[in-house]
Amino acid sequence: MHWNEVVCTVLLALGCVINFSGSYGVLKFPDFYARLHAAGKTDSLAQVLILLGLVFVTPDVLTKIKLMLVAFILLIVAPTATFAITKAAHLDGLRPWTRGGRQ
């Protein structure tokens, strides 16, 4: 196994583990805002790690540039979409969960 395949395997595995931890957070957290936070943060990082892992095994330079461009765009678009969804829920009147129950 060559060094770039090892780096690719590590990044892909790390991306999958982070993605599964975000899925667990979506199931475990009590309200919409916490679930969206878990999904948004971990999903963005996992996607970028997976794309960067693919960069190490792709032989074509143009494909590497495209993968890095997609990763960069995901780093900008995914948090913006999460913010827009959260703001829409807040403006719609969805209140956050509190320890004593809903307010």
Automatic annotation (TrEMBL):
GO terms for molecular function: sodium:proton antiporter activity. The chain crosses the membrane at residues 44-62, 69-89. It holds the Pfam family PhaG_MnhG_YufB. The keyword Membrane applies. Keywords: Membrane, Transmembrane, Transmembrane helix. The keyword Membrane applies. This is Multisubunit sodium/proton antiporter, MrpG subunit. It comes from Nannocystis exedens.
